[in-house]
């Protein structure tokens, strides 16, 4: 006889033990401990959806035992351990470990492992799994969860023998973010369970919205002591319309019921897969007042034969005494639920339970090589684990396979909407494999905002004040609001602006330097003086055109240079007065155009040219420094001054020395003097 002890916590854990492979049997060996009785005695903790999954596990084991192709001549049994509450977590697990010698000192032979322990199915929640999984990882004992979605379990260094038949939180967060982006929502709140599951979801969400326009305006971890009125008040004060609820089913019910009691209205609620298919909340009369509920759910996969199984077990008589209740739901029906109650319960995670048991059965089938007759065989957990990792089979037209992280390679989510009739209606889907396929039929949604989707782009002053001033130490629960600030700023027109802490756009005030400003008058007078000086120099050079000084300075090129200097000075006048497009163009065009024309390709005054260029460079370095440090309206005055200084540097330091010689030292402006200079220079070189 073979025993498959399957602890299932609110479907806890599933254990299989084997003594021989060939002993034929037609019955299912069911070993059930007293914890079910204690559980039923505390009816306030009875979770209907967990009870349905428990019955689904029983049905799956029964179906496998009746199969002629999967594990023929091998019967599976199970043992259930209560892993649903903190007070009952460890007694059941420690009993499982002590009875089956799961943990042994390193280096010892694992002979006792051949008794009755092969694999564990469950637990359901991430927190429960994180509590007990390390016990099973030591000896690479396979744990297959149907509900633990925390991304922590994908780290194989810590959880080498963990697999799951549900997608990790990373996938469902991806779906939620895609929904938010599809409707172009920006200003959201994230409410999560204050446990490993919820904290993991929050962390993944915060990382995912980096470099997006989504702003996490508020988040809060929920537990049994949460002050819901305070949360709703904070959400309302920040103008948040979209609320992501990433919590367990019981917490979600408490939250939504509180929202209805507090008369919270006009919100969009995004439900996680743990409560999106809730069978009770959508039918409540007040649910319409809270707004629109959109959810992400596990695909509902009908399990053929399960409903008939429920009706058959519910036809059993009720337990009459405590001894019978020890084996409740095995030899009798110890619950008061009708078959209709069980069948109508939230079907979420039904297929993950179904496929988890089947995955272990297929792995065990390959290890045992059933069909080959053995007198006696030992099966070790690591053998089952090795085959589990290689799983690749079809179950109800769905492929069951695990990747290198122990996560399912394929999967999808349904996108649902709680309609006005109190039903959960499918409006879209998100498929991961073989390629991403995302679809929402938004026409099926009846929005509370008169049938139209609202963008909910940003909130109130509080948001802008914090994001704009950059006071990171004051940002609490809002680390990703900076992208939303960019969205708000860009909403202002080109002719508008928004001050720090403001929620409105103001018309830009055009500031400029009027012609009557004292600095403008001085600079314009300087430009007029430049014009006069260039004219005087031009006349002087024309009169003395055939002299050596004028010829050595460039001859006819001198007049081109002086003309360009005069034309460049015109740009100075356009830095003042009310700016326009033509005036802004004329500030730079004359200067750039004529400045590049003049000083000449061939020149004889290298020292003068070099000195003028040094002055030019120094002038613009000073202006560039001033431009970086000062952003006021007088920057245009400095710009005009830099232009004028550049022009004067060439006029004064290139042409002024020539004018001095022509007027005051005419004896140096003779061919004989220049020839003497050349002869002296030649002698100096030769020496």
From TrEMBL:
<keyword id="KW-0297">G-protein coupled receptor</keyword>
<dbReference type="InterPro" id="IPR000068">
    <property type="entry name" value="GPCR_3_Ca_sens_rcpt-rel"/>
</dbReference>
<keyword id="KW-0732">Signal</keyword>
<keyword id="KW-1133">Transmembrane helix</keyword>
<dbReference type="InterPro" id="IPR000337">
    <property type="entry name" value="GPCR_3"/>
</dbReference>
<feature type="transmembrane region" description="Helical">
    <location>
        <begin position="637"/>
        <end position="656"/>
    </location>
</feature>
<feature type="transmembrane region" description="Helical">
    <location>
        <begin position="606"/>
        <end position="625"/>
    </location>
</feature>
<dbReference type="GO" id="GO:0004930">
    <property type="term" value="F:G protein-coupled receptor activity"/>
</dbReference>
<feature type="transmembrane region" description="Helical">
    <location>
        <begin position="521"/>
        <end position="542"/>
    </location>
</feature>
<keyword id="KW-0325">Glycoprotein</keyword>
<dbReference type="InterPro" id="IPR017978">
    <property type="entry name" value="GPCR_3_C"/>
</dbReference>
<keyword id="KW-0472">Membrane</keyword>
<keyword id="KW-1003">Cell membrane</keyword>
<feature type="signal peptide">
    <location>
        <begin position="1"/>
        <end position="21"/>
    </location>
</feature>
<feature type="transmembrane region" description="Helical">
    <location>
        <begin position="554"/>
        <end position="577"/>
    </location>
</feature>
<dbReference type="GO" id="GO:0005886">
    <property type="term" value="C:plasma membrane"/>
</dbReference>
<dbReference type="InterPro" id="IPR028082">
    <property type="entry name" value="Peripla_BP_I"/>
</dbReference>
<keyword id="KW-0675">Receptor</keyword>
<dbReference type="InterPro" id="IPR001828">
    <property type="entry name" value="ANF_lig-bd_rcpt"/>
</dbReference>
<keyword id="KW-0812">Transmembrane</keyword>
<feature type="transmembrane region" description="Helical">
    <location>
        <begin position="584"/>
        <end position="600"/>
    </location>
</feature>
<keyword id="KW-0807">Transducer</keyword>
<protein>
    <submittedName>
        <fullName>Taste receptor type 1 member 1-like</fullName>
    </submittedName>
</protein>
<dbReference type="Pfam" id="PF01094">
    <property type="entry name" value="ANF_receptor"/>
</dbReference>
<dbReference type="Pfam" id="PF00003">
    <property type="entry name" value="7tm_3"/>
</dbReference>
<feature type="domain" description="G-protein coupled receptors family 3 profile">
    <location>
        <begin position="519"/>
        <end position="587"/>
    </location>
</feature>
<feature type="domain" description="G-protein coupled receptors family 3 profile">
    <location>
        <begin position="591"/>
        <end position="670"/>
    </location>
</feature>
């Amino acid at each position: 006889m073979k025993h498959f002890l399957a602890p299932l916590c609110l479907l806890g854990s599933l254990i299989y033990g084997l003594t021989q492979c060939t002993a034929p049997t037609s019955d299912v060996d069911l070993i059930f401990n007293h914890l079910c009785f204690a559980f039923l005695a505390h009816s306030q903790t009875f979770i209907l959806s967990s009870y349905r999954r428990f019955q689904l596990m029983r049905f799956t084991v029964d179906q496998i035992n009746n199969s002629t192709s999967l594990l023929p001549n091998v019967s599976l049994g199970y043992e259930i351990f209560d892993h649903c509450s903190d007070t009952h977590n460890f007694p059941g697990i420690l009993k499982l470990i002590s009875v089956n010698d799961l943990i042994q000192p390193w280096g010892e032979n694992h002979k006792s492992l051949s008794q009755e322990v092969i694999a564990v199915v469950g637990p359901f929640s991430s927190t429960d799994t994180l509590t007990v999984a390390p016990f099973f990882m030591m000896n690479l004992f396979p744990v297959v969860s149907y509900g633990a979605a925390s991304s922590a379990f994908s780290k194989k260094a810590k959880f080498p023998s963990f697999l799951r038949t549900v997608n990790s939180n990373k996938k469902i967060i991806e779906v939620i973010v895609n929904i938010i982006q599809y409707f172009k929502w920006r200003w959201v709140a994230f409410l999560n369970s204050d446990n490993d599951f919820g904290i993991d979801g929050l962390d993944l969400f915060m990382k995912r919205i980096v470099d997006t326009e989504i702003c996490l305006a508020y988040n809060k971890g929920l537990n049994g002591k949460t002050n819901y009125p305070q949360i709703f008040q904070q959400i309302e004060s920040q103008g948040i319309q979209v609320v992501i609820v990433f919590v367990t089913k019981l917490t979600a019910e408490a939250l939504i019921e509180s929202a209805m009691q507090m008369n919270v209205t006009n919100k969009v609620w995004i439900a996680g897969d743990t409560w999106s298919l809730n069978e009770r909340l959508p039918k409540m009369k007040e649910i319409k007042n809270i707004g629109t509920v959109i959810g992400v759910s596990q695909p509902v996969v009908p399990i053929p034969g399960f409903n008939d199984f429920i009706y058959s077990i519910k036809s059993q008589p009720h337990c009459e005494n405590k001894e019978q209740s020890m084996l409740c739901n095995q030899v009798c029906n110890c619950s008061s639920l009708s078959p209709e109650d069980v069948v109508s319960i939230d079907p979420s995670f039904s297929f993950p339970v179904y496929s988890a048991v089947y995955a272990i059965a297929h792995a065990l089938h390959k290890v045992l090589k059933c069909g080959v007759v053995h007198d006696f065989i030992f099966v070790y957990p690591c053998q089952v684990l090795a085959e589990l990792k290689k799983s690749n089979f079809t179950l109800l037209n769905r492929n069951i396979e695990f990747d290198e992280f122990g996560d399912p390679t394929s999967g999808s989510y349904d996108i649902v909407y709680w309609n006005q009739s109190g039903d959960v209606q499918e409006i879209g889907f998100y498929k991961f494999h073989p390629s991403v396929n995302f679809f929402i039929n938004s026409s099926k949604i009846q929005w509370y905002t008169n049938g139209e989707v609202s963008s909910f782009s940003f909130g109130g002053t509080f948001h802008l004040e914090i994001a704009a001033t950059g006071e990171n130490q004051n940002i609490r629960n809002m680390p990703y609001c900076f992208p939303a600030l960019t969205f708000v700023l860009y909403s202002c027109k080109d002719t508008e602006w928004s001050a720090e802490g403001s929620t409105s756009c103001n018309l830009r005030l055009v500031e400029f330097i009027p012609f009557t400003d004292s600095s403008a008058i001085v600079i314009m007078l300087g430009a007029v003086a430049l014009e006069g000086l260039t004219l005087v120099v031009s006349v002087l050079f024309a009169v003395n055109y055939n002299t050596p000084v004028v010829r050595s300075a460039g001859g006819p090129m001198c007049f081109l240079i002086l003309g360009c200097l005069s034309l460049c000075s015109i740009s100075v006048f356009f830095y003042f007065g009310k700016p326009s497009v033509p005036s802004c163009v004329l500030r730079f065009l004359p200067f750039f155009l004529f400045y590049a024309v003049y000083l000449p390709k061939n020149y004889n005054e290298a020292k003068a040219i070099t000195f003028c260029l040094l002055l030019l460079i120094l002038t613009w370095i000073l202006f560039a420094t001033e431009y970086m440090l000062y952003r006021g309206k007088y920057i245009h005055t400095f710009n005009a001054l830099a232009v004028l200084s550049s022009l004067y540097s060439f006029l004064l330091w290139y042409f002024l020395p020539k004018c001095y010689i022509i007027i005051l030292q005419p004896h140096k402006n003779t061919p004989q003097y220049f020839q003497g200079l050349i002869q002296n220079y030649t002698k100096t070189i030769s020496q």
